[in-house]
């Protein structure tokens, strides 16, 4: 047994998975709002607790998962704890995990008939609540919200605008840093401030 597999999952699987699921749902409904998850979780290297908590909650043996090369060290843990069906190409993934922003065009944007078949990117970044400021507007926001994030690349807003232009198709992103997460649903507009 590898030392990675030996790391436990949730201490209380039902309560912690439900709390993480509620946090992800609220983050999707209220883009930019920060939520704490995975505080009691020992995540496998190189994943942060929030990233691991989201994966334990959303991924199972019926959801194809793609890992970028930097996240590949967590492969055995994810296969063991989630029963994850890990695939080699990003385009067929229902969920994708990356430690740096991949080409969003490489992920499934869904179809006009089934936009819900698009991928959700779980992107682990350096920090949430500090760093570059972004103004979010769109569904779920009565007025623009501010998000500060450290670890998104310089061209992120342009990449996002191309993704957003596909709406109702497009990729949704769950940003994770440490024990904090937020979400950027494809419906939201983003400007750097």
Search tags:
193 residues, alpha/beta, Rossmann fold, 7-stranded mixed sheet, 3-stranded antiparallel sheet
Describe this structure in words.
With about 190 residues, the chain is α/β, with parallel strands linked by helices. It is built from five helices and ten strands, in the order H-H-E-H-E-H-E-E-E-E-E-H-E-E-E. It has helices at about 5, 15-30, 50-60, 75-80, 155-165; strands at about 35, 65, 85, 95-100, 120-125, 125-135, 145-150, 170-175, 180-185, 190. Helix 2 (about 15-30) packs across helix 3 (about 50-60). It is globular, with a radius of gyration of 16 Å. The model has no long low-confidence stretch (mean pLDDT about 95).
What's the gist of this structure?
By secondary structure, this protein is α/β, with parallel strands linked by helices. Helix content is 25%, strand content 26%. The chain has a single domain (3-186), classed as Bacterial phosphonate metabolism protein PhnH (Rossmann fold), CATH 3.40.50.
CATH homologous superfamily (4th level) name: Bacterial phosphonate metabolism protein PhnH
Strand order in the largest sheet = 1-9-8-5-4-2-3
Classify the helix fraction into a percent range: 10-25%
What does the average pLDDT come to?
94
Q: How many domains would you count in the coordinates?
A: 1
CATH class: Alpha Beta
Number of helices: 5
What Rg, in angstroms, do the CA atoms define? Answer: 16 Å
List segments where confidence is low: pLDDT < 50 over at least 5 consecutive residues: none
